[in-house]
Design a protein that fits this description.
This protein has a five-stranded antiparallel beta sheet with strand order 2-1-5-4-3, sandwiched between helices. The chain has helices spanning about 1-10, 15-30, 35-45, 75-90, 95-100, 120-130, 160-190, 195-210, 225-235, 240-245, 250-265, 270-280; strands spanning about 50-60, 65-70, 105-110, 130-140, 145-155. With about 280 residues, it is of the alpha+beta class.
Amino acid sequence: MADQALINIFGNHAVLGTYIRSIAAVIRALGSDKFEEALVKFLSDVVPVDHCAIFTYSEHGQAGHLFTHSQMPQQKAEQLARDYVERFHGQDPNFAALQELKDADYHGFSHRNLNEDYDPAYQNHFFDRSGLIDKASSVGKIEDGQVYCNFYRMAGSAPYSEKDWAALKDLLPLATAMVAAHYDAAKAKGHVHLDNGSENIVRKSIVHNIVSHDVEPFTSLTNRERQVCERILLGYTTTGIGLDLNIAPTSVATYRKRAYSKLAISSQNELFALCFRTSNQ
């Protein structure tokens, strides 16, 4: 019965085998920087998705941005995500429902009409000006809150068809569960775990003192560039840094590139060497 249900989504057994391998690729990427591309590829092979925006909500309802994968220019996509987190998430019609679903392992939201169900300012900012024309959403439980998954079609693509919606209804529980697992895995991988808690505090303090605003050559860095460098030195992954600072992995990469340029280095090893020389001056 389960096999038949999968075949109804994917087609014949040969096609099903292809998608199972695609799912395996997503699972292998859990907790890594390759996850978002693997997820979007899997989804788009079944139901093409133009813009994927994943947010988090803490147990206290604080919004965060996990990642965005989009066909629109990266800077524009990242700005939309920041605007949502910092200014607009409370106007999302799904936000009130999210507060009531804190203990739900999964919930899929009904199809919303992007021309009628949203506040005019919200609709203008996120849909009319950005070219997003159709949306499927879901929420899943994570260790310390929720992941809120949004999958869009953009102008130039057709809105989701009835066949697309039927496939999404079956796929979203799986996709949302994988996003939740990715978040928990990335958060675990992104932090340095030492047996001695006090040792961890001391290590963080040492790194913070080295990468200080009044210590050369780190005086040229912005606060965000300095924060990224600190976490690189502490062993955080790119995804882990993003989770800790509540920014997307692509933003982490941008801050890292800017910091390395200012420090006249090009790699993590050179950053470690630079800090070693600084600490011994």
